[in-house]
Design a protein that fits this description.
alpha/beta; Rossmann fold; four-stranded parallel beta sheet; three-stranded antiparallel beta sheet; 7 strands; 40% helix; globular
Length: 178
């Protein structure tokens, strides 16, 4: 599968950090990026920078706290993507630190909703549409505890032909340890 056959990416948590870097990288590859975030000002700034560099980008404001907000994001992304999303980057997440015994149920529910439920329902909404287009696998993101190097591996597979777009945020020294 060539990069040219992938036209639209939905990136949650796309207004800062790794999500923003992924949006910039994908836009540089000619992919229309749709970034999702809570902060409208950061979202518009991200979109303006991508467009200023010649890329195509849109912003959807959402906190992704429940299935209803996920459905709204999915619906809007499909509209902005001319009927489809080819790449899904489930990057949004919160990671509060502190002793487990001090974690309140409310704090736990916030983490669970954003880090588990939102990605699950995004995949549930988009995977069937992606499969109809022949896409089998879209994104793998991993962070190892204690490892300061974050990596976002963007992979797409269609009919057995795999294309690795690249690893972001992993220096050569970390690659040699794998």
């Amino acid at each position: 599968m060539s990069v040219n056959s992938l036209t639209t990416a939905l990136i949650t948590g796309g207004t800062s950090g790794i999500g923003r870097a992924a949006a910039n990288k994908l836009a540089q590859l000619g992919i229309h990026v749709i970034v999702v975030g809570r902060d409208a000002a950061r979202g518009e700034k991200t979109v303006a920078e991508i467009r200023g560099a010649g890329g195509k980008a849109d912003f959807i404001s959402s906190d992704l706290r429940d299935a209803s907000s996920v459905r709204e994001v999915t619906k809007r992304a499909i509209e902005l993507g001319n009927g489809h999303v080819d790449i899904l980057v489930n990057n949004a997440g919160i990671y509060p630190f502190g002793p487990t015994h001090e974690t309140t149920e409310e704090a736990f529910e916030k983490v669970y909703s954003l880090n588990v439920k939102a990605p699950y329902f995004l995949v549930a909404q988009l995977a069937p549409l992606m499969a109809k287009r022949g896409l089998r696998r879209a994104i793998q993101r991993r962070k190892q505890a204690g490892n300061p190097w974050l990596m976002l591996r963007i992979v797409c597979q269609r009919e057995g032909n795999e294309t690795l777009f690249g690893d972001l945020f992993q220096p050569d020294s970390a690659r040699s340890r794998q």
